[in-house]
Design a protein that fits this description.
By secondary structure, the protein is mainly alpha-helical. About 85% of the residues lie in helices and about 0% in strands.
């Protein structure tokens, strides 16, 4: 069992590496195999399965296969919410990933909805002055910009900038 967990972890890691080198088909194979192994060892509602699904969603997004991306990212979200509840970093990450796909599809109101959920979770977990909060503010700024709501976009970009300056300094 332990050797299978290690094998699945290595497959997921290899899949991530393959994605970085644009070898997406091989990456998908690795993540699919990892998900199968994790499901056989644990069950289909385990955080490692969610991680593999999240990785698959991200690869499909890179390929521009947004429906497949959404399918896997939604599965990851369901698993993460079942395991961790709503207020968890992995759930916020799932919302952010789904928002990215909706942005790519030009469905900015849907993206905004998921980013607002991610922001709420991140603020609950980390407080205002955290890099994940700043990143989500920045993403919301981009969505509002795409919607042509420039004043709102500016507000979110400024919030992100203020937090980033607090965290990383002026330079």
């Amino acid at each position: 069992r332990e050797s299978n967990v290690i094998r699945a972890f290595v497959l997921d890691t290899r899949g991530l590496t393959l994605s970085m080198t644009c070898q997406y088909k091989l990456s998908i194979s690795c993540h699919e195999e990892a998900a199968k192994i994790y499901t056989a060892i644990h069950d289909k509602h385990h955080c490692n399965v969610a991680t593999s699904y999240n990785n698959l969603g991200n690869v499909y997004q890179e390929l521009g296969q947004y429906n497949e991306a959404k399918e896997f990212l939604e599965k990851a979200l369901i698993i993460n919410k079942k395991i961790f509840g709503e207020d968890h970093g992995d759930v916020a990450g799932s919302y952010r990933n789904l928002a990215n796909v909706y942005q790519d599809l030009g469905q900015y109101n849907e993206a905004k909805k998921f980013l607002e959920k991610a922001l709420s979770i991140n603020k609950t977990i980390f407080g205002e002055d955290h890099a994940d909060v700043a990143g989500t503010y920045n993403n919301l700024g981009n969505v509002y910009k795409q919607l042509g709501q420039y004043n709102e976009a500016k507000e979110f970009f400024e919030k992100a900038l203020i937090i980033n300056k607090k965290i990383f300094g002026e330079d």
